Structure formats: C-alpha cells, structure tokens
C-alpha cells in the first residue's frame, strides 16, 4: 500500500499507557518525560487504558462521557465498587458478596484487615510472599522542594494492587509534581 494513503491514526503517535495521541514524536517523548506513568496505576480491564486514579477510571467506565464499548461491558459484568471486570454475571454476583471495598465496611482498618495477606500465608506457607509499598510525592513549602506524601500503594508480587489510598499532606501543596519514592519490599 502506498504511504500517501495511510490513515490519520497511523500517522499519530500514541502513548501506550494513557492512549493520548500526538502529531509529533517529540510531543510524545515530552509527554512520557513529564507524565510519570506507573505500572501501578488503575487500568481499565476492557481496553487496558491506564488512569491516574480510581476516580478517573470510574469516569472512563461510567462517567458523563464514557467509552461506549467499555461502558457496555462494564454494565454487564463490572463491579461498581472496586471497578473490576468479571468473566460472567454469576461471577459478578459472587464477587459483590465479598468485595473487599464493600460500602458497608469502608473504614481503613477494615480494608487493611481484609487484604487477605495473612490468610493466604497460612494456606500456602510453602513459598514466600512479597509485597511492595510505594509512595507518590508532591512538593510543599514556599519553593516546592519539600517532599510530601500524597498517595500510598501496596502491590503484590504479580503487580496487582492490594491497597491504594490518597493521603492529605500536612502542608499546602505548592508543586504538583508526581514522583515515585519509598519503594520498599517486604518478604513474608
């Protein structure tokens, strides 16, 4: 096929994490440099798009202008509490009964106790388990040079999010940079 007849989609440069499109490769490179995409960001289970937060994932699935295909599948098989996509409607019904982010018990202590790390350790004690903790930092102080924790994420050895929460910094945020720090691995 002659290159003069390529579609406009093939000429645009697309970010693999958030699917933003750019006319020039330089713009994509700059986007990747400043966006700090992480493998631990919430991801749509249908189209695999990564979102900055669970709130933006919720908007992608069921917000005012959702992606049509994702919305259709999510309405059929998606958990509206934890935003996971299940394989069938019956699996969704069973999942909702024991969803760890249940709205009836949404306290931090309950969610931490409900992670299931200790229970799985008792069941399968033949191999060690690894959990990583990461903090995403923003800038505080008059010049934005102080590191303030804004997000905490616990991830298992398969890079599945075990726990995620935002933290309100104790000082006003003056620099909204989003850097990953404090990665610590715990072996059980």
UniProtKB/TrEMBL annotation:
The keyword Signal does not apply. PROSITE patterns: ZINC_FINGER_C2H2_1, ZINC_FINGER_C2H2_2. Gene3D superfamilies: Classic Zinc Finger (3.30.160.60), Ribonuclease H-like superfamily/Ribonuclease H (3.30.420.10). It comes from the Eukaryota. Keywords: Hydrolase, Metal-binding, Nuclease, Zinc, Zinc-finger. InterPro entries: REXO1/3/4-like, RNaseH_sf, Znf_C2H2_type. GO terms for molecular function: exonuclease activity; nucleic acid binding; zinc ion binding. GO terms for cellular component: nucleus. This is Exoribonuclease.
